[in-house]
Structure formats: structure tokens, C-alpha cells
Amino acid sequence: MHDIIASLKNVGVFYKKRFSLKRSKSNAYWALQEVNLEIRHGEAIGIRGHNGAGKSTLLRVLAGIVSPNKGEARIAEGCRAGLLTLQSGFNPYLNGVDNAILKGLYMGVTKEYIQSKIADIIELSGLGQKFYEHTGTYSSGMAARLGFAVNYFCMPDLLLIDETLGVGDREFRQKSKLLIRELIRSDKTVVIVSHEDEALATLTDKIYTLDKGVLITS
Amino acid sequence: MSISAREANIKPTNPSKFWHYWELLWFKVYADLKIETQITYLGFLWWFLEPIFFLAIYYLVFAVVLKTRTPHFVEFLFVGVVAWRWFGPAMNKSCRSIKMQAKLMREVYVAKWIFPAAIVLNDAFKFVIIFSLVLIFLAVFHDKPTALWLTIIPNLLCQMLLIFGLSFCFAAVTPFLPDFPLIVQTVMFSLMIISGVFYDVLEAPPHLAHLLQFNPIADILINYRLPLIYKQWPQWGYMMYSGLFGIALNIIGLYFMRKYDRVFPKVCG
Which pTM does this prediction carry? Predict the structure, then answer.
């Protein structure tokens, strides 16, 4: 079996609803409780659950964005974990190049590397000369395409996908879906959150269900 | 789709953490400055026009309308106001620097010190422009530059340290205490008054002057004015004090930045 690249042991995460001088228990709620999960290299793991079940929080813990309040979250050394985010992080007053570099840097790759991939990003996003214009002039579909292309070339080692987020126009959604499928089938380690049980069943090796912050093996 | 998933599997070079953040920090500073030039018609010209406007207003009020008799008062005022303007606005912006990035923080892990640091460097760039204008003004209307002017370099570094330190501290507090920027605004105003932007702290009665010099910002202003306007050596002891104060603030600020690095995304939600 492959190496474990991320593991969660008895992980609990709580959020405070709002800042208050009074300390009361009702002010905090546990988004994740006693979550145990091991992710091995090359695995594809599916997570399903209702809205507010803690899916996003789980992805954030795996991405190292949020530290657990209880338990332990470990990611293998040198492993970049990241959420696949498409539309955000672009500044409307910067052109595609600057935005791509900035986003790539945030995702943990070097400027030099992204600059070497500019031509590929243009090709994959299908933006052509539009790439050199301010992203503020892009349609939301174009922005999503740029986001996807940058993500694609700055791909983290542990890819976290929230498929419940609608992205771009229908054609592009179809395209990105295919690509996500292809990535899952390849060597990538993927954790995918989705509403589509059927898709999860065919694509992933293991499926878990999150219910009110508790992770259950399906 | 012409590019296969396998091609994308080529792993981009993974630099050491420090170099990576260094690169990110400078690119962010560059990008933010570029954005500033894009959102207005006059673009980067504002970096010159704005300070010239406000210096002109101070000149009008103090030299023309009030006809201040104190010798070299205009020079005194210009140095003080310009040095202060690196503190004031940077503090108010730093307070909100982490909170403003809430969306980004929830999607990707970024070391949070990057955000206030980028703001400080952005303002440092603009400070260099207007400070150069003031130096040119002094060279033309006051006196020829002397070797003494070089002593402002360590003072600049002390000021930089203080601003970085305060920014880290302020940025770390605001996500937990939404009222904090308002407190800072009030405190910064009082600080401006006691730092001697408009009057000479050294002319206060000795015991009071000594007390006022506990405030490192007052020392910074004094140590700009002594060599630039009065052709005197700076007060090295106080310069060292302001530098050490700055280092201490950096240690405290960075400690909290590190401690709450992965907590900020939750509280900023």
C-alpha cells in the first residue's frame, strides 16, 4: 500500500458564532467531531453530506488552512495540499498574467514556474489575447476558466475539490468535470466533496458521509 | 482538452519556505502598487501629487496664514508631517490587513504575516517618494546637504522596524476584536499629538521632554530633524531605544502571527 500523505486523528474543530465578552457554551459549535481519516498517495476519497455537515471545514483542515481544536492533523512533509478554487483570488485591476502569478504564488509554486507555463495556461483556458486584459473585463465563465487553468498547472499534491460549487458556463463545467475525473483516475491524491452519489461511487475508492460533523464510513 | 492530466503532474519546483514567502511578498507589493495605478485616472502621479498637495496646505496654514515666527518652522513641519504619514495610515490599514483577506485565507494556506508586511512595504515605497521630495526641498531652500544627513539612514531603519512591529501586533489583534481599528484610530491621533509633529518636544520643560521621549515615535522625529535641519548629531541613545523598541514589537507581533496563523481563517469568517 502507498504511503500515508495525510492523517486526521480524533480531529475536532469548533467555531465561535460571534465574538462576545461573555463565555458561554452556546456561543460555540463543533463543525467536526472526532474525525479519523487516513489518506494514502494516489487514493481518491469521496465525502458526501448535507449543507452545513462540516464538509468545507474538513477540506480546510486537510489543506492546513485551519488547525483543529482537538486531535491531530498531519500532512506529509513537502506535500502541498490545496483546495481547487476557481473564481476567487483574482483582482479585477490586474491582467491574466499578474493574476496567474499571484494565484500560483499563493498556491505555493514559484513565479518562474508559472511564467514558464503562461502559454499552456492561455491554451487550456482558451482566453487568447483576452489573457492580457484586466480580469475585471472577463465574464464569470472566463474567470472560472482562468482559475481552472492556473489551478491545473499549480496542482497541489493533495487535491481537495468541492464539487458542490458551481463553476463557469455549462460547457466549461462539463470540460472541468471530465478533467477532474481524469485527475482522479491518474496518480493524483484527491478528496472530493460532492452531492452526486453516483459520480462519487464510480470515481472514488472510498466514500465517507459527514453528518453533523461526524465522519461515517459508507 | 489537449493537455492531459499526466502532463500537469510535473511537479513545480518547491523552493524553501523563506524564499517562497519572500517572492510572494514582493510580488504582492508590486501587484498592489500596480492596482493603485489602475484604479485612478492619474495613476502613479497621485504618489507625487497627494503629498505635494498636503505639504502645500500645511505651508499655507503655518507660513502664510499664521505667519509662524519660529525659525525653520516650515522645514521642521515638513519633516515631521512626512515622517508621521508613514506611521498613521500604515497602522490603520495594517489593522484590517488580515481581515480583508478572509476569502483568500479560507481557500489556501498563506502565512498571515505577509498581509501586514505587504502593506508596510507598499507605504514604504510611497514614503521614499515623498521623503525624497522633502530632502530636495531642504537642499534647495534650507541648506546644502552635509555628511550628517547620512545619520538618517539608521533612523529610517528604526522607523521601519517600529512600523513593522506595530503592524504585526495590530493585524493580529483585529480579527479577534472588531472594535480594535477604531481604538487604534483614536490612539494614533493622540500619538500624533504627543510625538511632536507640530511642535518641538525638546523645547518642553526637561522633565516633560524626557517623559515624551519614552514614546519612540517622538525620538524618530527628533532624530530626523537634528541632522537635517539643525546640523546636529542625532541622539544616538534614543535612536537605539527606538530600534530596540521596534525589535521587541516585531518579536511580540510575529509570535502572535505564528500562534494564530491557522486560527485567523476561522475568526475572520
Answer: 0.88
* Burial class of residue A72, CB neighbours in 10 A (0-12, 13-18, 19+): exposed
How far is the C-alpha of B58 from the C-alpha of A132, rounded, in Å?
43
To which H or E segment does residue A46 belong? strand A44-49
Q: Which of B98, B233, B114 is nearest to B172 (CA)?
A: B98
Q: Give me the residue label for grid cell 514582493.
A: B26
B265 and A78 in contact by Cβ < 8 A? Answer: no
The DSSP secondary structure of B212-253, one letter per residue, reads: HTTSHHHHHHHHHHHHHHS-----HHHHHHHHHHHHHHHHHH
Residue B125's pLDDT band, with cuts at 50, 70 and 90, is very high
Residue in chain B closest to A104 (alpha carbons) equals B24
Interface pTM (ipTM) of the complex?
0.84
Q: In what order do the strands lie in the sheet with A28-40?
A: A28-40, A4-16, A70-75
What residues of chain B lie within 8 A of the CB of A98, using their CB?
31, 34
Assess B259–A contact: CB distance below 8 Å, yes or no: no
3-class state of residue A10 by DSSP: strand
Residue A8 has phi, psi (to 5 degrees) of: -120, 130
Q: How far is A155 from chain B (nearest CA, A)?
A: 7
User: Is residue A102 within 8 angstroms of chain B, CB to CB?
Assistant: yes
Max mean pLDDT among A176-190, B65-79, B145-159, B193-207 falls in B145-159
Look at residue A132 in the predicted model and tell me its pLDDT: 94
Top pLDDT among B170 and A49 is at B170
Question: In whole angstroms, what is the distance from residue A165 CA to residue A176 CA?
Answer: 12
Which among A110, A178, A179, A193 is the top mutation candidate for probing chain B, defined by the most B β-carbons within 10 Å of its own β-carbon?
A110
